[in-house]
Amino acid sequence: VQWDFGVPDIRIAPARALGRAYGRVLRRHAATVLAYDRYSDAPEAPLKAELIAMLSMNRSLAIEPDELVLTRGSQMGLYLIARCLIRAGDLVAVEEPGYSPAADLFRRLGARVAPIAVDGAGIQVDALAALHAERPVRAVFVTPHHQFPTTVTLSASRRLALMELCARARIALIEDDFDHEFHYDARPVLPLASVDSARVVLYVGSLSKVVAPGLRLGYVVAPKPFARQMEALRRLIDIQPDLVQAGAVAELFQDGEIPRHLRRARRIYGARRDHLAALLRARLGGVLEFELPAGGLAFWCEVDPPIDVEEWAKRAQALGLVFRTGRRFYLDQRPRPFVRLGFGRLDEREQAQAVARLVRAIPRQRSA
Ligand SMILES: Cc1ncc(COP(=O)(O)O)c(C=O)c1O
Questions:
Q1: How many angstroms does the Cα of residue 157 sit away from the middle of ligand 1?
Q2: Ligand 1 site, residue 205, Cβ cutoff 6 A
């Protein structure tokens, strides 16, 4: 069993509806979606229109089509942003613990990557300001809604401070809002990009959680000149978006399938979150400590210090259970007493089986 670190359950994805939408698009629009896009007029326009409507209605983002760049997932969005923004030697700040594919990308482009600590209120903006005072920071990468991996939401005062700092210092603020929709007890918090009067935010979104990760469909919202640069670079990698897919996903939005799926998914994941919380408290109460996450698809748990978390993971693997330990969310990869446990992909029975293996695998505690 692979215990995921927070991915959706593909078994509930709207696969049938997607299949029907592909069929309809190929029947009705083959002449445009199967051609090079330069021979027709903005064939990706219907999908862009749907995304713009969604971003406006659910996230208070008011944008125009040429501020929206379609990508193959948010990872490609991050790549395009980084490639257009960062030069070798630039200093880029990232959250720590954080999302290592972003840090890996910045390093690959020759940036110096500086970790900024995350606490219960999100990234420590004072530490970012102090770093910038020492040496100019080109960009900061953040996941403010459900911080990856700790799940905390950036507090209101930190949001203000971060926006103010980035606007004043002209630090590009890369906002990765990878699982915006999954918020359980209250309404989702609006993106930083929705209050970005200084236009410093590059906003990255994805349909990996909304529909399915295997689709590889994401987008970036950026000021027009920057979006144009990204489009030009994108064309060097991949001549055009997947127009068949773009058409099919636009149809899923148009016939209400995506909002319907999201309502259902939110209900299911909310119940699974509560179920896993109860299970972990009952079976691993003295071993794992966690706050119930307001959103996202995973728990961030602190492991009781006498337990060697890497040893625990090794023993679990021998029992057929793989889970992610804290080390992979830190730049230095040194062991840390945390685990990130997804609650979306496993149903209640599977959660019980996985937790039973976790319990069996607990290593004998080191003597003090
Ligand atoms: C922080 C973060 N960003 C982005 C993604 C998704 O990437 P993509 O849209 O490329 O599937 C994930 C997936 O787990 C993630 O955790």
A1: 26
A2: no
The pLDDT tens digits for 190-229 are: 999 999 999 999 999 999 999 999 999 999 999 999 999 9
CA–CA distance, 186 with 66 (Å, rounded to integer): 32
- Residue by residue, DSSP assigns 188-213 as PPPPGGGG-TT--EEEEEESTTTT-G
- Taking the C-alpha atoms of residue 151 and residue 155, their distance in angstroms, rounded to an integer, is 12
Q: Which amino acid is at 314?
A: K
| Spatial separation of the C-alpha atoms in residues 173 and 201, rounded to whole Å | 5
pLDDT in tens, 294-311: 999 999 999 998 999 999
Q: Which atom of ligand 1 is nearest to the CA of 75?
A: 10
**Mutual angle of helices 156-169 and 125-134, in 10-degree steps:** 20
CB neighbours of residue 302 within 10 Å: 16
Counting ligand 1 atoms within 8 A of each CB, the residue from 99, 151, 178, 220 with the most, and so the one to mutate, is 178
How many angstroms separate the alpha carbon of residue 149 from the centre of ligand 1? 11
Q: Is the CB of 75 under 6 A from ligand 1?
A: yes
Ligand 1 atom nearest 176 alpha carbon: 3
Task: Among 70, 179, 208, 324, name the best residue to mutate to test ligand 1's pocket (greatest count of ligand atoms within 8 A of Cβ).
Answer: 208
CA-wise closest residue to 95 among 134, 153, 49, 53: 153
Task: Classify residue 326 by its DSSP letter.
Answer: G
CA distance 249 to 316: 39
Helix (H) / strand (E) element for 51: namely helix 45-59
